[in-house]
Design goal:
The protein is built from 12 helices and 22 strands. The protein is an alpha/beta fold. The strands form 5 sheets. Strands 1, 2, 9, 10, 11, 12 and 22 form a 7-stranded mixed sheet that branches. The chain has a 6-stranded antiparallel sheet with strand order 6-15-16-17-14-20, covered by helices on one side. A 4-stranded mixed sheet has the order 3-4-5-21. 51% of the residues are buried. The chain binds flavin-adenine dinucleotide and iron/sulfur cluster. Residues 11-17, 34-37, 78-82, 85-86, 89-93, 203, 234-235, 272-275, 277, 281, 328, 467-468, 500-501, 511-513, 516 line the site of flavin-adenine dinucleotide.
């Protein structure tokens, strides 16, 4: 029997995939990461109208841009496509889940205490810190004032962010948010970064590399230890072999608008394609290709939208400038069910990039000296300072919702020959908590003189948009209640793992990336310990070792 091409093939390079690649490569494994999206750089992040903004899963050879926006019937889901996954597009919030959230719906060995060393390690790798006090945005200050006015002052806190700040950055100097004020440095993993200039572009890619994205830490370490990352490789089928796995993919040639089929083998396959990506891939393997017929009947069930909601509020007498400053900076923590009507909420400030300002900046950078350049420079001053949405505060947040969505394959009436990913989700069980979020947003607005405008997508259509999809390949104790076990091992298929947000079995009610990364750290640690007894060295004893469990006060089923 021939040796497999790799020890491990990892599908996707977001939080779950990047952590897995890093730790397996450090342990000396021959690792390949297949990533459907591009390898973006600060020079190629989308800025102009005709830049590649969108990813289309069905036409990925033609549309392989920044964001994958999936429109299901009542739910829109946003995710990134690129080397670094969600870290490229995300708002950098790297917050631990509340200990109470692990009391229900999780395998008993997964507790906050068990995850703590892994949470700490993720925080260290992502160099997480809070916004310095000299850089509080008008949004942060408005939020603090609103929290106090609502009697929630004690619950207001700055959030941990995966951003490199310069405490000397001066908001009072001319053009403070200009890139030239970013300080260049080499990070702990040998990659060049810059410091944050509070430009508000976090969701469209940081042009000064102040975001501590996964390509600059976990993936950088993985590559330094020999891992290979192949962008524009869209995986569509997994096939078990007598020993190991065959992974089938299409290589996307963006200029040629072509797909070139290929396949490679590995002893192990780790899915890190995200809640939607990993669930869709396994659904296709079970229900379309028939290569994994024994996957749990729970596949696709228990999907969570994590209660995301934005309520814009307009202020007559206040300048909020939502495009100034990091996209999210702080939260009001009501997750102990102290939101309106006793529901669990995590309210945040939300920022929006100044798209017009960015377009002008990119044009300006390409122009030679001369009159035209002077004109565009003037224009930049106007669109930069005169933020078109300067009186708007996007109140944002997440909530503890019932996680009752289901992903499945269906057929469209106009294309019955093709199976497409569908979602069954009804707003009804989520309605109370979404109304509680809206009530909180209204109260915060009204107490500070703002007029909230609840989006008609909710009031009329009961549609939601989530950037925080969770679940689909949920953890469980047996195949009757989950797709993977507490270590991410797929029930019934040795050597196949899910390591990303698809395994999170319930809504966290706050930004999930730190928990996804901590779970991946834990599960790769256990995988390595099972193989050679050594693990990653992040903790001294196995979290499922009974002595260790007793010391930590963990429960066992
Ligand atoms: C606008 C926005 C802002 C956000 N802000 C925050 C925040 O501040 N804090 C926070 O905690 N979370 C935030 N999130 C959510 C966060 O990005 C996700 O929770 C996180 O990235 C999920 O990690 P993951 O490993 O599950 O998957 P992802 O990070 O989504 O990674 C999946 C990767 O797999 C690739 N992939 C998918 N399918 C395939 C395939 N078939 N073949 C090959 N590759 C594939 C994808 O391109 C992607 O790179 C935000 C999300 C968005 C969209
Ligand atoms: S605010 Fe601007 S500089 Fe700071 S992290 Fe976000 S994109 Fe980068």
């Amino acid at each position: 029997m021939s040796e497999p091409d790799f020890d491990a093939i990892i599908i996707g390079s977001g939080f779950g995939g990047a952590v897995s690649a890093c730790r397996l490569a450090q342990a000396g494994r021959k690792v390949l990461v297949l990533e459907r999206g591009r390898r973006w750089t600060p020079q190629t992040y989308p800025r102009a109208v005709d830049d590649p903004w969108l990813w289309d899963q069905d036409n990925a050879h033609r549309f392989n841009g920044w964001a994958d926006l999936r429109a299901f019937s009542d739910m829109w889901v946003v995710a990134a496509a690129g080397v670094g996954g969600g870290s490229l597009i995300y708002a950098n919030v790297s917050v631990e889940a509340k200990p109470e959230v692990f009391r229900r719906g999780w395998p008993p060995e997964i507790t906050h205490a068990a995850l703590q060393p892994y949470y700490d390690e993720v925080g260290r790798m992502l160099a997480v810190r809070e916004l310095p006090d000299n850089q509080l945005t008008t949004r942060t200050l408005l939020m603090r004032e609103a929290a106090q006015a609502c009697g929630w002052g004690e619950r207001f806190r700055k959030l941990p962010l995966a951003v490199s700040f310069d405490t000397k950055w001066d908001p009072e100097r001319p053009e403070p948010r200009d890139d030239r004020h970013s300080q260049s440095f080499v990070n702990a993993h040998g990659r060049r970064q810059g410091t944050c200039v509070q430009c508000g572009n976090c969701d469209i890619g940081c042009q000064v590399s102040a975001k501590n994205t996964l390509d600059l830490n976990y993936l950088a370490v993985a590559e330094a230890h020999g891992a290979e990352i192949r962008p524009l490789h869209l995986v569509h089928k997994l096939e078990p072999l007598a020993q190991g796995w065959r992974v089938h993919f299409d290589i996307l040639e963006p200029d040629g608008h072509r797909r070139v089929p290929g396949s490679l083998s590995a002893a192990k396959v780790l899915l890190g394609a995200g809640s939607i990506g990993s669930t869709e891939l396994l659904l296709r393997c079970r229900d379309e290709h028939g290569t994994l017929p024994g996957l749990s009947a729970r596949l696709g069930h228990g999907w969570a939208h994590n209660g995301d909601f934005v309520t814009p509020a307009f202020y007559d007498k206040r300048t909020v400038s939502p495009s100034h400053g990091v996209t999210i900076s702080a939260a009001i923590d009501l997750l102990d069910y102290s939101g309106p009507d006793g529901l669990g909420l995590f309210v945040e400030d939300g920022g929006v990039p100044n798209l017009a300002g960015n377009f002008v900046r990119r044009r300006l950078a390409k122009l030679p000296c001369g009159k035209l350049r002077s004109f565009w420079r003037e224009l930049r001053g106007l669109v930069d300072d005169g933020d078109p949405l300067e009186n708007m505060m996007p109140w944002f947040g997440q909530a503890l919702e019932p996680a009752d969505g289901r992903l499945l394959l269906g057929r469209k009436w106009y294309a019955p020959w093709r199976r497409t990913l569908r979602m069954e989700w009804s707003y009804r069980r989520s309605e109370p908590v979404m109304e509680s979020m809206i009530a909180a947003h209204k109260l915060l607005s009204q107490k500070t003189g703002g007029k909230p405008m609840v989006p008609p997508t909710w009031t009329l259509l009961r549609n939601l948009v989530t950037p925080h999809p969770l679940g689909g390949c949920n953890m469980g104790l047996t195949p009757a209640d989950g797709v993977v076990d507490a270590q991410g091992r797929v029930f019934g298929y040795e050597g196949l793992y899910v390591m990303d947000g698809a395994i999170v079995p319930r809504a966290l009610g706050l930004n999930p990336s730190r928990t996804i990364a901590a779970l991946a750290e834990r599960n790769v640690d256990l995988l390595l310990r099972a193989e050679d007894g050594r693990g990653t060295g992040i903790v001294g004893a196995l979290p499922c070792d009974p002595d260790h469990a007793a010391a930590q006060g963990l429960q066992h089923g």
